[in-house]
Amino acid sequence: MMAMMVVSCGPVGEEFNEEFLYGEWVSTVPLAGTNHEIHDRFGSDHRGSTKSFTDADTDWQYYSWTLEGATLTRIHEMEMRSNTRAVSVDEWTITSLTESKLVYRDQGGRTITCTKL
């Protein structure tokens, strides 16, 4: 007799309604003992922006995004001072998405909960 055990590390094969992402979200992420408020905007054109509200001088940073299954990918293209371009990719694993609440794990393994504004 042979026994098999299947272990899942995340929402494998889970699909989320992309339209629920459209709009502006806010999360409060504890960093170094402070509350770090982050706003993310997701547009139906797969363009988005993010801003940290810990520093009044922070500008919106723009990105493109995709949602495949439970993986939300944000691709930031930045122009550096030396007139070169840099690309940064963030991947989040969505664990819950409704019309008013987004819960995901970031690349560092933190669980972040967002509410829609």
Overview of this protein structure:
By secondary structure, the protein is mainly β. It has strands at 23-31, 34-42, 47-52, 61-68, 71-79, 85-97, 101-105, 111-116. It has one domain: Lipocalin.
CATH architecture heading: Beta Barrel
Distance between the terminal alpha carbons, to the nearest Å? 55 Å
How would you describe the shape?
globular
Largest sheet: 8 strands, antiparallel, barrel
Poorly predicted runs are: 1-10
Assign the CATH topology: Lipocalin
Q: Cα-atom Rg, whole angstroms?
A: 16 Å
Order of helices and strands: EEEEEEEE
The CATH class turns out to be Mainly Beta
Overall SS class: mainly beta
Per DSSP E runs of 2 or more residues, the count of β-strands stands at 8
Helix count equals 0
Helicity level, as a percent range? under 10%
Which short descriptors sum up this protein?
single chain; 117 residues; mainly beta; Lipocalin; eight-stranded antiparallel beta barrel; 8 strands; 56% strand; globular
What's this entry about, in short?
This protein has 117 residues and is mainly beta. It has strands at 23-31, 34-42, 47-52, 61-68, 71-79, 85-97, 101-105, 111-116.
Topology:
Elements: E1 23-31, E2 34-42, E3 47-52, E4 61-68, E5 71-79, E6 85-97, E7 101-105, E8 111-116
Antiparallel strand pairs: 1-2, 1-8, 2-3, 3-4, 4-5, 5-6, 6-7, 7-8
